[in-house]
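Hey,
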Amino acid sequence: YTQKPTTRRVSLFDKLPESFTKEDVEKEARNNGIFSPVRNIITLWKKENLLRKIDAKTYKKIKHHEKNSKN
C-alpha cells in the first residue's frame, strides 16, 4: 500500500505503444503486478482524456501523461 495505484496506472500507460488493445493493457498490467480490471483502468484513462477508441478493439493515445507537459 506504499505506492499509489494512480502512479502505477500512469507508468503502465507510458509503457504501452501509441495504439493498443485491451489485451495489451492486461498483459502489461499483469507483468507490472497490477490486477485491477482492465476496463476500469481504460475508463479512468478515458476520463483523463489520455486515449480514444479507434475501433472495436483498439485504443490510441491522444496525449502522453507527463507532469511537465509543454502543451
